[in-house]
Design a protein that fits this description.
By secondary structure, the protein is mainly α. The chain has one domain. It is built from 16 helices and no strands. It is globular.
């Protein structure tokens, strides 16, 4: 079979863009909710009774995307959440990988992926709450002496480096992505029930491809030219909240495209689907271990990669997806690293250990 690289790239761009359509709905919606409730997280006392902290943290982690862990890290710093609540949030979260499972595309069996999302979230919720209570019961508390204040000084300096790049990120790219996401929204919602808008199917394909291309360009500009991270500090305006969500959307779409491209190239071109699936069935423990290690890498890239593998590789173990979800900390790890590296390292190492134990246990059933 002759390999056409251009067609292969376009197919993966389209798939990433279609998933990105649903990602956009979810992230923009979460940004609006977060903006509306921002004042509730500025108090300096525990939110809720102490006995409920692991439950509160786990429920925050259950929110699709990284917003829950970022809020949890901020609450922990301000004394609004115990360490057990923080740990529960990080155990429960799927990070931006949740949007890959919730997204709908030709690459994905929508019903199966929704089932996987529910199963993985349920396991994480139970494990997170239990370990949160254990952590608080043995008296793990705030670490001292290394808390650093995050300021916008560096971001303001970077903003002046390249005005053209800044204009694209803050205006051109921002409005283009918002417009395409709005156009794709009805079809993305209908796709959850297996439907589509036939009259604009061809236009939808081009819009999804354009969303992927623009998002990849946007991500590389703000990440490598402006040198900003997806957890960059913004002000409290609505536009700033939406801008932050666009940054997250472009990061997810970029990683999804890379994951799809690499996975499909290895499976379909280099190895062959049948040979790869045979190896997967024989090496469950290795797959679980690799998935947990990949998920434990800082940020959302690892969990996105594992989620992409789950939706594209036949017979990918559910145990591996669960292990990666427990090990991942999402983008919430970055503000925690900036404020207290000791706490971040403890959560990462402990989360990886728990992920391996739970993953192996699930694989054994």
């Amino acid at each position: 079979m002759e390999f056409n690289l251009w067609s292969f790239i376009l197919e993966n761009l389209e798939a990433a863009g279609v998933i990105g359509g649903y990602v956009s709905i979810s992230m923009i919606g979460f940004a609006l909710i977060s903006y509306a409730s921002r004042e509730k997280f500025r108090r300096k006392n525990l939110i809720g009774p102490k006995w409920a902290q692991p439950i509160i943290g786990a429920l925050l982690g259950l929110v699709p995307g990284c917003g829950g862990t970022i809020v949890s890290a901020s609450m922990y710093k301000n004394g609004n959440l115990t360490f057990g609540g923080l740990f529960a949030a990080f155990i429960t979260t799927l990070g931006e990988g949740s949007f890959v499972l919730l997204g709908a595309s030709d690459e994905a069996d929508v019903a199966a992926n929704l089932t996987a999302f529910v199963v993985v979230s349920a396991v994480g919720l139970v494990v997170g709450i239990i370990l949160g209570y254990v952590t608080d019961a043995i008296g793990v508390k705030f670490s001292k002496g290394e808390r650093l204040e995050i300021t916008t000084k560096e971001h303001l300096r970077i903003s002046e480096v390249n005005s053209a790049a800044r204009n694209f990120v803050d205006n051109i790219g921002f409005y283009l992505i918002m417009a395409i996401a709005l156009f794709l929204a009805p079809g993305s919602i209908m796709a959850l029930w297996g439907g589509s808008i036939e009259a604009i199917e061809e236009l939808t394909v081009w819009a999804a491809t354009a969303l992927a291309v623009i998002s990849i360009v946007y991500y590389f500009i703000y990440r490598f030219i402006l040198k900003e991270d997806c957890h960059s500090v913004h002000n409290d305006s609505l536009r700033s909240a939406l801008l932050h969500s666009i940054e997250d959307i472009t990061m997810v779409i970029t990683y999804v495209f890379i994951g799809l491209f690499v996975a499909n190239f290895i499976i379909d071109i280099l190895i062959g689907a049948e040979a790869f699936e045979a190896w997967m069935k024989k090496s469950g423990f290795i797959v679980v271990t690799l998935a947990a290690l990949i998920g434990a890498t800082p940020g959302c890239g690892g969990m996105i990669a594992v989620s992409v593998a789950f939706i594209t590789i036949g017979d990918f173990p559910m145990a591996a997806l669960i292990a990666a979800s427990i090990a991942t900390s999402g983008d919430g790890i970055f503000p925690l690293l900036a404020e207290n590296k000791k706490d971040a390292i403890i959560i990462t190492v402990a989360g990886l250990a728990v992920a391996l134990v739970v993953g192996y246990a699930v694989l054994g059933f």
